[in-house]
Amino acid sequence: MTYRTLGHSGLRVSRAALGTMNFGLDPQAPTPEAEAHRIVGAFLDAGHNLIDTADVYRGGSSEEVVGRAIAHRRAEVVLATKAGGPRGAGPNDRGLSRAHLTRALDASLRRLGTDYIDLYQCHLPDPDTPAEETMAVLGEFVRAGKVRYAGCSNYTAAGIVGAQWAAERLGVPAFVSLQAGYSLIARSIEAEILPVCRSHGLGVLAYSPLGSGVLTGRYRRGAAPEAGSRLAEWAAMPGTMARSWVAGLLADRHFDIADEVAAAAAALGTTSAAVALAWIAERDDITAVVLGPRSAAHLAGALDGLHRRLPAGIRARLDDVSAATVLPAVTGQPRAA
What GO MF annotations does this protein's record show (predicted)? Predict the structure, then answer.
């Protein structure tokens, strides 16, 4: 098993991270608790250690499921969660203020059934809270032993720089990681964000490496997402943001890229998912790839893809056809309640 240090920290993490957005207790959760336990067991048995969740996933029940799944193997796990998303209707029930983060951390610790979180991440930027306030309270969490390291998610390059400078001015721990969407159909972070992460010592955790399923061939050009799929769930959410996100994902250019991935998979005798994951796993700037399997079988296939190496010609072709691709200007991803 190959591990990498996370940014400028000494924390060593596996090349695969287990994303748990699908885990939940509600009847609509794609992955019920029993299957989630099987996935976590298989992931850890394979030697991987980074498990990522968030307090907004499935209304918080993802954290509950994760906590129970790792309870007897806590020392093996680098446990990551996120805060800052909406947890109620009140004005202080979201964001990165001291008031919200303090409550959010204590609630996550209870749901996860643990005394500490290895990587506590700011889920979304909060333009209404000064970076100094956020970094100061994260530093207090670290000093109290409730958090080992702090990270961020969905930040812009400017937001990363501002947070790192604030931490330096305050003399508190800076961010060690960024979680960002990255795939063959979403390479916009290469322009500014990845260089900033290199210069400011952040490791990068890449989520949605399969382009929310577009790169696997699950969706068809010109057709609505099938009922029961993630994109169908997002398209049914209230408001226009989620529908715009789905429309952007199903753009013709993204299907052109998916067709190239499928051709590469046919030439190599493997799956489109394996090709897309192999491409991203070879990127030096990516510390870990966040996988979001719905079943233990899906996990096995994804892990196989991460261990593959693409022939130089195929890799160059994929680089060329996907160059400068960007998703719509939407922060983060739609989130199920």
Answer: oxidoreductase activity
Sorted by where each starts, the structural domains of the chain and their CATH numbers stand as: 3-213+274-313 (3.20.20.100)
pLDDT for position 171: 98
Q: Do the beta carbons of residue 115 and residue 146 sit within 8 Å?
A: yes
- 254-287 pLDDT tens trace: 999 999 999 999 999 999 999 999 999 999 999 9
Which residue from 142, 133, 135, 199 is spatially nearest to 167, judged by alpha carbons? Answer: 135
What whole-number percentage of the chain has pLDDT above 90?
83
Q: Which residues contact 42 (CB under 8 A, 6 or more apart)?
A: 296, 299, 300
φ, ψ at 69 (rounded to 5°): -70, -30
Task: Tell me phi and psi for residue 14, to 5 degrees.
Answer: -75, 160
Cα 124–chain centre separation:
12
What's the DSSP call for residue 5?
E
pLDDT digits (tens, 9 = 90+) for 27-41: 989 999 999 999 999
Q: Which 3 state secondary structure label does DSSP give 334?
A: coil
CA distance 148 to 80: 10
Beta-bridged to residue 289, according to DSSP, are 16, 206
User: Which amino acid belongs to residue 264?
Assistant: A
- Of 308, 324, 302, 327, the C-alpha closest to 216 is 302
Is residue 57 part of the annotated active site? The answer reads yes
Q: Which pair of structure tokens corresponds to residue 242?
A: 């989620």
**What pLDDT sits at residue 328?**
43
Cβ count near 93 (within 10 Å)? 14
Catalytic position from the list 3, 57, 149, 182: 57
Looking at residue 241, its amino acid is M
Distance CA(251)–CA(312), nearest Å, equals 27
Residues 6+ apart with CB under 8 A from 320: none
Query: 279, 162, 197, 221: which is closest to 6 by C-alpha?
Result: 197
